[in-house]
């Protein structure tokens, strides 16, 4: 500050001192799938509201994954979910053509087509000699695939008709549609749209799922390959500091283990088997378990903290599991233990249906536990995001002390709430040499110890006769 003459009083604001550090949100879910309606390849934030979910993406329609996945998530907790819909009813490659012969309007003046989400509907007389038009002869509810005869209709009573149309066919949605990529205009497609969530909806997904698309394994001349959607999500998860809840194939436990071995990342948490639910038609159906597990993880974060493992917590909204998983505490040969030993989380029935398993697909035992990986992510990202203020300030003794003090205050807070055992931050003079400082480079070290889940508890039992003397006292 330049020295200048003043006859009076002035106040100079000194903007140094440690800054408070706020932990980033850990429980935001990123859901990629298919919906019968809603924006395509656009991040949409559903803030824990089932009615908002229906407003954007509709109720469940067979073959589509997003409505049911959101329902499974909200059965666990009112989570924030960034939704990416890849079902594009304007894409001809995702449609199928169909012709229904010998159809008639029922006594209520309606025809219900075999499929929903229809377009390009043509109604003709059965011999195709007459074409009837909308809205003169009928109206169309394209979402539900229902034709309604109008009062002015020229269609004779009980006329036999032929109806041709196109419908959005989810079986034609390819893995490449889900994998997506980047467009020349800077926008994204498929799972890559999750990268735009922070910009578009101001939240960063930390729990990534794509139910219906992460379970299968391609085969190339007998060689089993890794799931392409999970493989693409891995790069995204590393950038977002997120984890992937991956659905194993709904086959045998050997299939699940084979699937898991395709990945060696601490950001992949594989789950087997699928869950059973009762649908809106009172039918019992199987559905990938990743949505329920993602909701459970978000619930655990909100109620206990990101440093807790979601294992051994009950799953709401399911009535069973697609494959029997035997379990007994202390039994090393049961299926549940076999799966966990091979880095596959499972679901057991023990006082309710419980998620059971702590381990990721990590090839490095240091990052074996899901909670450890996520604790490190939350701390690292929080410190990075909360130090924008420190960029471009002069490197002085006060500056270094302020940064260290702020980080140490944060680590003490994490220790007090049980998120870490302890930790500290310091500036190492052997690294911060004059030649580094004069280039504008300053380095701060910090360490911490996360809490570890009590996965293996041992009671050592001894029978002795020492207490017999108590009889005669």
TrEMBL record:
Question: What family is this?
Answer: Belongs to the myoviridae tail sheath protein family.
Report what the protein is called.
Tail protein
Q: Which Pfam families match?
A: Gp18_domIII_N, Phage_sheath_1, Phage_sheath_1C
Which top-rank group of organisms is this from? Bacteria
> What are the Tail sheath protein subtilisin-like domain coordinates in residue numbering?
200-361
Q: Which InterPro entries match?
A: Gp18_domIII_N, Phage_sheath_subtilisin, Tail_sheath_C, Tail_sheath_structural
Task: Tell me the ranges covered by the Tail sheath protein Gp18-like domain, including all copies.
Answer: 28-86
Ranges of residues in domain Tail sheath protein C-terminal: 363-462
Organism, scientific name: uncultured Alphaproteobacteria bacterium
